[in-house]
Amino acid sequence: MASVQQRRIEIISRQITGSPTAGQGPLVQGRDCAAPSPRLLDGQVAIITGSGQGLGAAAAKLFAQQGARVLVTDLDGAKAEQVAEEIRRDGGEAAALAGDVTAEEFPARCVKAAVDSFGTIDILVNNAGFTWDGVIHKITPKQWDAMLAVHCTAPFRLIQAAAPVMREAAKRELDEGGVARSRCIINVSSTSGTHGNAGQANYSTAKAGVIGLTKTVAREWGGFNIRCNVVTYGYIATRLTSDKDSGASISVGGQQVKLGIPGGEAMAAAAAEMMIPLKRIGTPDEAAGAMLMLASPYAAFITGQSLEVTGGANI
Ligand SMILES: NC(=O)c1ccc[n+]([C@@H]2O[C@H](COP(=O)([O-])OP(=O)(O)OC[C@H]3O[C@@H](n4cnc5c(N)ncnc54)[C@H](O)[C@@H]3O)[C@@H](O)[C@H]2O)c1
């Protein structure tokens, strides 16, 4: 009789290579090339916060292309609905949910929406966020609290709210059959969190905090086959790195906070030339690719890791 360990490994290699049944060719070993390859996230359900635009929207579309059913959720409900609609138009499955990840009631509502729409949660991506920059001697208490709320407290509360669906389901599977399905959490951080950034004491602190959260979840939930990793992005071309004078803003407690960086794309291009070995900033699709890699069966033995996706900056 196969040991639990052996059964676990068999299940993971089936996920990577495709079912060993006739006509379903392996994806990695290169045998049976003519057979249809399974998609990387077939049958999985993903929540992606802040997926109305930017990195989150790119991830929602990519995950859906790879077979996931996606709950697209964003502060901006119209944008979330638009992304979900695009996914459905392209033949994928998606539902939209409007909401502020920092709201007291949001985590329970978000988990319920995913379960009501798709029955479970296999992948949770904590991506929603923004910047509210200031130099240390000028950062207000509200500015400080807003960053910790969106980048640390919200991911923690969502992970906690997902526990009955992710952790408890895995526990039941272990109790019943000895093997828990692969599930994962991906948090989104920044090189500001790993290296610091002048003008971003609040954001850097919060983005460092979510790395500690990631490693703790990885340790606590690893026994349930729930992996937790964090992606620390460098410059990616989104609203967050566009020109601060472009007019983009976000409302925080009734106050409009301007988004972007001074100088926008020109500034980013100059920084890229000097600091990024690949000599350019990244695209949302490239950022989403890193999330897909971590969510895929190819990352079945990767947990608790902080992956820098920067074009090589800071090496
Ligand atoms: N773009 C970059 O260069 C970069 C670099 C490092 C990290 N990040 C991180 O990536 C994540 C996504 O950023 P982006 O660049 O795609 O920005 P973006 O502004 O293009 O998209 C962020 C999305 O998050 C949503 N959002 C913000 N606050 C929210 C809240 N309280 N509740 C619900 N939704 C909320 C916004 O409405 C928006 O749709 C953020 O956590 C950001 O800090 C971005």
UniProtKB/TrEMBL annotation:
Keyword Lipid biosynthesis included in the entry's annotation: no
Domain Ketoreductase, residue spans: 44-224
Cross-referenced PROSITE patterns: ADH_SHORT
Pfam families documented for this protein: adh_short_C2 (PF13561)
GO molecular function term, any single one: oxidoreductase activity, acting on the CH-OH group of donors, NAD or NADP as acceptor
The keyword ATP-binding is annotated on this UniProt entry: no
Keyword field: Oxidoreductase
Highest taxon of source: Eukaryota
GO biological process per UniProt: fatty acid biosynthetic process
Family as reported in the entry's similarity comment: Belongs to the short-chain dehydrogenases/reductases (SDR) family.
Protein name: Ketoreductase domain-containing protein
Organism name: Elliptochloris bilobata
